[in-house]
Amino acid sequence: MELNSEADEDTKKEQEQKEEEKEKQHFHVLAVDDSNIDRKLLERLLTVSSYQVTCVDSGDKALEYLGLLDIQESEISRTSSISSCSSSSSKSSEKEVSKVNLIMTDYSMPGITGYDLLKRVKRSSWKDVPVVVMSSENIPSRITIRCLEGGAEEFLLKPVKLADMRKLHSHLLNTTNIHDTIIDSDHNNNTNKRKASSPEDSDRRTRIQELPVS
Questions:
Q1: Angstrom distance (rounded) from CA 120 to CA 17
Q2: Residue 133, Cα to own-chain centre: how many angstroms?
Q3: How far apart are CA 71 and CA 92, in angstroms?
Q4: What is the pLDDT of residue 138?
Q5: Which residue, 62, 116, 135, 139, is the most exposed by fewest CB within 10 angstroms?
């Protein structure tokens, strides 16, 4: 009886592990780091942990991927290419971006820093997407407090380890429907704009202006 009980427990654990791995495959992580070595390491750790990964090498590229760059910033950003670890599209329109369930960013980067990226994300329609900040600073306490107060979900000390990947899952569970909400909101805004300036309204205004005045 005891042997059967142990076998049932082992089977249950295996099923739970398989379900967890299958669930992770639906989660998409946007990884941001200007260091090629750290970026490749992060890609490998996330891939081994069964996450879908897209890597970019700067805060500008991350904002462009999320559709948060303004016109001038976007023109500057196009001078360098996006380093993608997946087959996802890198279009700047939110409607063309595959869902992002988590953003992992290095703290110290040239141009737009990880902290700048965090602030921009939290002021945008992506504000509910969890952000994890990474840093190799020897005394990270000041940075940790600053980032957590700025809305970061987690702070990781570099180099990132495989054990750190286990901390991500709890942050990802509540983000499954966030992207759909963003897309629906963007679609509704565009629909309202089209309604406000529809050809029928324009023709109606033209006909009214052409009516003879008695």
A1: 36
A2: 13
A3: 11
A4: 73
A5: 139
